[in-house]
Amino acid sequence: MNPSTEDLRAFAAHDHARCRARALAAAQERCRARRLRLTPARFCALEALLESHRAMTAYELLDRLRDAGHGGQPPVAYRALGFLVDNGFAHRIERLGAYVACTAGAEGAHPAAFMVCRACRAVAETALDVGPDLAERTAAVGFAPERTVVEVEGLCARCAAARA
């Protein structure tokens, strides 16, 4: 796996407003092309996840949805997150019990690796090449993988430098 600068944008300075606008436009286009309904609550949830490359819990997102007038009950956030995850616009970071916007631009579920900073909760997504070894091992025992995710926890350069 050789991550590109694009993959690591969560840990690097970049034009985040442009990054966010491009991701929102791409999501709207994908929804139009696939005839998916990007409701105002779903759009608001995606917009919140795209505001930074930081994982957000469902309850943090619920506060944002409530402030934007989309309701304050947990099912509102969980339904929006379910749509975003199911359609490849967001990922659940198991280690944090939180969600992050998909930065790969891939359609639907895809193998991914996440670098998760345990201090600031920044998350960078990179493509994951699981290779033939894993495919052979799972096939050998008749196992049918549905999702492959790797989460690498550590400190980003900024947090490591702050601790030094």
List the helices and strands and how they pair.
Elements: H1 16-34, H2 40-50, H3 58-67, H4 74-86, E1 90-93, E2 98-101, E3 112-117, E4 123-127, H5 131-140, E5 149-154, H6 157-163
Between the first and last Cα atoms, what is the distance in angstroms? Answer: 28 Å
**Assembly context of the chains:** single chain
**What is the overall pLDDT average?**
85
Low-pLDDT residue intervals, each spanning 5 or more residues: 1-6
Number of strands: 5
The coarse silhouette is globular
Beta fraction: 15-25%
Return the string of H and E elements. HHHHEEEEHEH
Protein described:
The protein is built from 6 helices and 5 strands. The strands form 2 sheets. Strands 4-3-5 form a 3-stranded mixed sheet, with no helix packed on it. Strands 1-2 form a two-stranded antiparallel ribbon. Strand 3 (112-117) and strand 4 (123-127) form a beta hairpin. Residues 1-6 have low confidence and may be disordered. The chain has 164 residues and is an alpha+beta fold. Helices cover 43% and strands 15% of the residues. It has helices spanning 16-34, 40-50, 58-67, 74-86, 131-140, 157-163; strands at 90-93, 98-101, 112-117, 123-127, 149-154. It is globular.
